[in-house]
Automatic annotation (TrEMBL):
Gene3D superfamilies: Medium-chain alcohol dehydrogenases, catalytic domain (3.90.180.10), NAD(P)-binding Rossmann-like Domain (3.40.50.720). Belongs to the zinc-containing alcohol dehydrogenase family. It comes from Paenibacillus bovis. Residues 11-341 form the Enoyl reductase (ER) domain. InterPro entries: ADH-like_C, ADH-like_N, ADH_Zn_CS, CAD-like, ER, GroES-like_sf, NAD(P)-bd_dom_sf. One of its GO terms (molecular function) is zinc ion binding. Keywords: Metal-binding, Oxidoreductase, Zinc. Transmembrane segments: none annotated. Pfam families: ADH_N (PF08240), ADH_zinc_N (PF00107). PROSITE patterns: ADH_ZINC (PS00059). Its cofactor is Zn(2+). This is Alcohol dehydrogenase.
């Protein structure tokens, strides 16, 4: 077994502390990864604080993981020692159900095995990427293209795929008008990717405070949702809206911005139920949809797409001692645009 240095919380209201955990011995298809960088995702905060249901403590969050392969099991064929690799939001699935067979392991009928706060096939709790090492079965490990640095690759494994997958699924591309609600960790990736796919991109943000950034990331237009005229002027405009905001919003107001056959996709997950007026949908054959990360094949496709189009997230690298402070800054929307932990500081 490998003893990993980690940062963990020991309760919903506890600060992070340095600990060690044991990673399992390598099974025949396992890869041992020395983690170099781990992104901080809003989901980490919800989970660590027990806001998405009870979790077992101590908990090591982190599902935006980038590092180097340092050992491989006897039957591993995809990776070798020294390879630059990543791990995202899941580390296994049943591999037998219809969705797994389609390569949509995130929607596994038996539930995918999340990278942290889950239970693996050995019956052990999974612990995430705020750690020096992790052991993952090779089929759930991604290859990081040469021209993407490890620190930039980390946020792509959640924020990147979470936005890439719905953009692909609902055919963002030339001639399509795409709006992105919220310019945070997810939103800024959605803008960059939708722009690279050739769509006309609009940011809908509470204020215009990040307008210069939004335009720099590839947005063609930028509007403040605090201004009621925005909703009047843009009514019936968009083919696709990606809603990255995980707070409760007036969903009918956003649905009214969709063109005929338009779709609004939620990728953020508010804790409380949303309500909507079905007339908003039927009056223009609109759809209200949701999307969760992406399958392993699509995640690799996203990494290769980002490499080809020179897309990387905007990041702020922090040390392990700054995680608590970073959480508060994420909650205050005071991050441009993703915190990434340098795990050499664990
Ligand atoms: Zn995430
Ligand atoms: Zn399955």
């Amino acid at each position: 077994m490998v003893t990993a240095k980690v940062r963990a919380v020991d309760g919903a209201d506890q600060p992070f502390q340095a600990m060690t955990i044991e990673r399992r011995d390598l099974d025949t298809q396992d890869v041992l990864i020395e983690i170099k960088f781990a992104g901080i995702c809003h989901s980490d905060i919800h989970t660590a604080r027990g806001e998405w249901g009870p979790v077992n403590y101590p908990l090591v969050p982190g599902h935006e993981i980038a590092g180097i392969v340092t050992a491989v099991g006897s039957e591993v064929t995809k990776y070798k020692i020294g390879d630059r690799v990543g791990v995202g939001c899941m580390v296994d699935s049943c591999r037998e159900c219809a969705n797994c067979k389609k390569g949509e392991e995130q929607y596994c009928h038996k539930g995918n095995v999340p990278t942290y706060a889950g239970v693996d096939k050995y019956g052990q709790p999974t612990q995430g990427g705020y750690a020096s090492h992790i052991v993952v079965t090779e089929d759930f490990v991604l290859g990081i293209p040469d021209n993407i640095s490890l620190e930039h690759a980390a946020p792509l494994l959640c924020a990147g795929i979470t936005t890439y997958s719905p953009l692909r699924t609902w055919n963002a591309g030339p001639g399509k008008k795409v709006a992105v609600v919220g310019l945070g960790g997810l939103g800024h990736m959605a803008v960059k990717i939708a722009h690279a796919m050739g769509s006309e991109v609009t940011v809908l943000s509470q204020s215009l405070s990040k307008k210069d950034d939004g335009l720099k990331f590839g947005a063609d237009h930028y509007y403040a949702t605090s201004n009621p005229e925005t909703f009047q002027n843009l009514a019936g405009t968009f083919d696709l809206i990606i809603n990255t905001v995980s707070a409760k919003i007036d969903i009918d107001a956003y649905i009214s911005l969709l063109a005929l056959d338009g779709t609004i996709v939620n990728v953020g997950a508010p804790a409380e139920p949303l309500s909507l007026n079905v007339f908003s949908l039927i009056s223009q054959r609109r759809s209200f949809a949701g999307s969760m990360i992406g399958g392993i094949r699509e995640t690799q496709e996203m990494l290769d797409f980002c490499a080809e189009h020179n897309i990387v997230p905007e990041i702020e690298i922090i040390s392990a001692d700054q995680i608590d402070e970073a959480y508060e800054r994420v909650l205050a929307s005071d991050v441009r645009y993703r915190f990434v932990i340098d795990t050499s500081t664990l």
